TrEMBL record:
Organism: Thermococcus paralvinellae
Pfam family membership, one: Aminotran_5
Xref: InterPro entries: Aminotrans_V_dom, GcvPB, GDC-P_C, GDC_P, PyrdxlP-dep_Trfase, PyrdxlP-dep_Trfase_major, PyrdxlP-dep_Trfase_small
Keywords: Oxidoreductase, Pyridoxal phosphate
UniProt cross-references to HAMAP family, sorted A to Z: GcvPB
Protein name listed in UniProt: glycine dehydrogenase (aminomethyl-transferring)
GO biological process: glycine decarboxylation via glycine cleavage system
Amino acid sequence: RLSEMNYGVDSGMYPLGSCTMKYNPKINEEIAGHPKVAFIHPYQDERTVQGALQIMWELEQWLKEITGMDRFTLQPAAGANGEFTGVMIIRAYHLDKGETQRNEIIVPDSAHGTNPASAAMAGFKVIEIPSNEQGTVDLEALENAVSERTAGLMLTNPNTLGIFEEDILEIARIVHRAGGLLYYDGANLNGILGKVRPGDMGFDVVHLNLHKTFSTPHGGGGPGAGPVGVKDFLKDYLPVPVVEYDEKKNRYYLNYDLPKSIGKVKEFYGNFAVLVRALTYLKIMGRDGLKAVSEIAVLNANYLTQKLKGTRGYGLPHKELRKHEVVFSAEPMKRETGVKALDVAKRLLDHGSHAPTIYFPLIVNEALMIEPTETVTREDLDHYVEVLKKISEEAYSNPEIVKGAPHNTAVRRVDDVLAAKRPIITWRMYRQLKEKGDIDI
């Protein structure tokens, strides 16, 4: 019973927007748990781990073909770690050219929060530009933002609204003409997988989330992995080591001889078992399977959109047709009943459904960001829409039921402020506070 109180991707639809919480095939775990994978050691001599190096080499070839990049590092441990690696490569490139004035990174207002954070950590000043009425990059604002100080633009495509940036070639032209580089946040690659490549859109640097697009586990089932790919003119700045293949000797080896490298960004060679899982997924799916992933992901997102569209209390800002995810707004519901997006999310738990991402992106008030992924069924989608419609009915007939949710979970609505100010993260801490009478739970 205790295990059933938890919720994971095996339990049902897990529609966190821009998280791509798809089902993780169990064959991935079987391969990653093989003794020859699980018990090798990073200090082993290269001659004894040729199979491991081959896995990393082959994964890089797949990722190059998928993205249109020329080289990859598999070291970064997660998406944000990949972002930081990417912007550090951009920084190293400009410094190597002597363009020390390029200290600005441009991000759209729809960007993931880690984009400006990663840029700031790398020493850049962050310049935010607004979206237009269609929810895409405002070209005039971009033209006004670029200058001799521009190091690059960080962009997700499809963006966080689930909308494809149709002006991407013009965006690339504007940034490159100003001397900047174009950075691709791969968080939403699932929406275009096998259909279009970031490298063909004009991107110079990309990071991918293996725990999103390529079915490796999130969170407690992780860790993650955020490989970074670059065009040929940036390969000398990649973290060391990179995996090389000597055709004459028919052997794989680690190359540390990159004098311009930004250095290491993760101990050893990255989260190897995660890389194994990703390559397993790619080999099983194949090219046609990867195309089907994006096709079904987009179909599912738009099916849900059309089923929920027009339901009282849920607005649909910007374009109607989306890629892999959609952002509804509970602003009308809040205005008319006092029920907020947070309340809707909590009430979903009472129905045994997982909440979507809420209050993100920030450009949508009372945002409900839903990404069903390709691994849910039509029945899953229909059920989720029916629950959201039921919550709408409750909000307008008896809003206090929704405002007080959840009612059926083991833990009721928590005090988020108190949890942040005084986190109880161990049993010992809980017991001590309980004995003092400082908590009443």
